[in-house]
Amino acid sequence: MIGYIGRRIVAIVPIVFIATLITFALIHISPIDPAEAYLTAAHIYPTDELLQQKRHEFGLDRPLLVQYVHTLGNIATLDFGKSYLTNQPVWNEVVSKLPATTELAFWSMLFSALVSIPLGVLAAVYKNSWIDMLSRIIAYLGASIPQFWLGYLLIFFFAVKLDWLPVEGRGDWRNLVLPTMTLSMVLIAVYTRLLRASMLDQLQETYVQYARMRGLRERVIMLKHVLKMAIMPLISGMGINLGKLLTGTIIVEQVFSWPGFGRYFVEAIFNRDIPVIQCYIFFAACLFILCNLLVDLVQLYMDPRISLKGRAKR
Amino acid sequence: MKSFYSKKSVTPIMIVLVAILLVVAGCSSNQNSTTATDNKAVPKSITMSWPRDIGTMNPHTYNPSQLFAQSMMYEPLVSYQSNGKLTPALAKSWDISKDGKVYTFHLRPNVKFSDGTPFNADIVKKNFDAVLKHKDTHSWLGIVGVIDQTEVVDDHTFRLTLTEPYYPVLQDLSVVRPFRFLGAAGFPDNGDTAEGIKEPVGTGPWLLSEYKQDEYAVFKQNPNYWGTLPDVQQVTIKIIPDAETRVAAFEKGDLDLIYGEGVISLDAFNQLRENQEYTTQLSEPVGTRSLLLNSSNPKLADIRVRTALNQGFNKKDMVEGITSGLEEPADSILSKNYPYTNIDLKPVTYNVASSQALLDEAGWKLPAGGTVREKNGEPLEFELIYDKTDPIQKAMAETIQAEWGALGAKVNLSGLELTVQIKRLKANDFDLYFWYNYGAPYDPHSFINVVASPGFGISETLSAVPNKKELDQQIRATLSSTDETKRQELYRSILTTLQEQSAIVPISYIKKTAVYHKNIAQFVFPANRDENPFSGITLNAQ
């Protein structure tokens, strides 16, 4: 098991290497000069002298290979340099944005699981009933409503009209409700349908017939056996989404003025803040790999057959 | 199956669902966010939103510090007021030598920084020297290139010596950055503020009392302020990057004021304007939206073609239709509220028949059955580049395309990112380009400076104007002139030439907007485009 985890962690190295290479190439292919973007954002006209000075300051006047090797060296020591925009160490800024993003990701994931699991189970058990129809409607809405629009709608009704919740910002639990609901809607839509389909598949399995023949109560069959197996695809989906949520939910953070990672990254892109972009890519690559690893471990734990396969390979 | 559908078995599931609903419904306690930004407890306080974090509050650097916030804490030697009037600020008076090269500032006595330390000539020199250590960074500001020496004459007298006369010294010193003053406690150990400051210490009416990056900033009155304190006692800035969210927060009552340029959509502004609960206000023009017709393009080198295009679109209808009155049709490149620009220039009026006649006269004829004019087999075709993120530019570009198309001039539209646009402007790689002047206190001197100086794209645009050399000479003479009357005459001549040449077509005057609740009794826009508006706010008694 430890060897398996170790191998997966080591796999981060080539993936990060490829990710940084692609990012580096894309940044330098882009027609926008980071020095020019910096000056424009600062309301300073980018004269040739100023551009030259800024390029030198940012190290952009060095050969591309030297710049890339320098970047790799810095990443290896977790030194991402200073942001072009704020002149502050990038790593410190990233770390300062993480609590807000993690908080939102955690609650969104929890809320969507708490709604979609019971709804998915009920929709499968009572196939074609009103609850199945309800889950279908929620799924259609969640999948088709753009997140920013849903955010505005929730703000309009719950914050402006009903005055129940704050419009924006990060504060106490009330500030969490609307962004969490906005983020969760699409997750609930996907998870509910995923779980419903998976449950229906499992219900066709012989072990269910056998359990019924043994006289087990339907509730026990569903919750203890069928759900345990049916939830596997949901865990995979949640793992991928956890990575997405933790790397920043750009639209929701923008609409609800949530001071998280997504907003920070978007601003970095607009300003061609290369050190921040590079740090983000590194961080995102690591995070996705770790989330996938986490999903695999949970699945290994829940389904011993996967575990056995893994051992057989070794 | 049926056995699953018993009340008993469904109960736990329903409990979970109900619990979730309760969590949501529990929000109905009518309690709003109780973050540090809750302003209601403080009398005479207001809350405003801003799209970006206020930044590091370093008075000598640019990004990410926001100009309005810097202006709340840091003050200039000289203040820019309506119609370009320069009034004493931290300097109570100044003397200018006859040759225009030596400026002696008599500093206001009894001024203290927010930490109680005195403001004197030593700290003025320290700040100037910190800025001038990075001349390249600040070279965009004309004064930086001509400062020869900074000198402490006595405790309250500071002298600035220039290498050559440069009349807009005082205007340049009134801008929000970089020539404003940080207290000694804010300087880093090596004195180089470009690397950062220890703490924001200024002489202004406000001090930063609470700050959470990307969330909010609270400013309180500076108890050591030398002047009359504003009526507002506390200002909270909420960082709200999204314009629609800003409007929602305002309608909910979380914000007292929305202020700035383009901070909310035109639709939202109109919607708020129609609501009797709010007051909306527009400023005097703060800048001009113009269209550059690049005379270095052979087709646009002919003044008849430029004039034909200038008078070939209905500016009034276009500006009013697209901006719903938020912008005003512009008759001249600079509005009349700058120094030296209050002159009567002959406006170019909409006249399709005259446009067509001018194009015919210039040799651009419509071929039989064709829609695009031609001359020697060449079509009258241009590329208009616009900022793809700016809906107003896009709508105007489309209108111009349609109107000039009807004249027989084909316009191809290219929506670009701002930085790419600027790159093409600098490289003189464009036909038609939306351009903006700098506004007060930078203009009119910054405007004429870019007309004469290569590298900004404007001089290049005008390169085929017949009297360009003479124009450049006049501009250089204006900037170094020490004679007020002569300077006014030079400005008249320069602006008249530019008006006649139609290479810079004025489209509309941009205005700042303010929308506020009834708790604000009076709101006065600052004369300086970059200054904060809080000193001009009077609140109703609570």
UniProtKB/TrEMBL annotation, chain A:
It is found in: Cell membrane. GO terms for cellular component: plasma membrane. GO terms for molecular function: nickel cation transmembrane transporter activity. It comes from the Bacteria. The keyword Membrane applies. It is a multi-pass membrane protein. The chain crosses the membrane at residues 9-29, 104-126, 138-160, 176-195, 280-301. Keywords: Cell membrane, Ion transport, Membrane, Nickel, Nickel transport, Transmembrane, Transmembrane helix, Transport. Residues 98-299 form the ABC transmembrane type-1 domain. The complex is composed of two ATP-binding proteins (NikD and NikE), two transmembrane proteins (NikB and NikC) and a solute-binding protein (NikA). Belongs to the binding-protein-dependent transport system permease family. OppBC subfamily. NCBIfam families: nickel_nikB (TIGR02789), Opp2B (NF045470). This is Nickel import system permease protein NikB. It comes from Paenibacillus nuruki.
From TrEMBL, chain B:
InterPro entries: CntA-like, Peptide/Ni-bd, SBP_5, SBP_5_dom. Pfam families: SBP_bac_5. GO terms for biological process: nickel cation transport; peptide transport. GO terms for molecular function: heme binding; nickel cation binding; peptide transmembrane transporter activity. Residues 85-453 form the Solute-binding protein family domain. It comes from the Bacteria. GO terms for cellular component: ATP-binding cassette (ABC) transporter complex; outer membrane-bounded periplasmic space. This is Nickel-binding periplasmic protein. It comes from Paenibacillus nuruki.
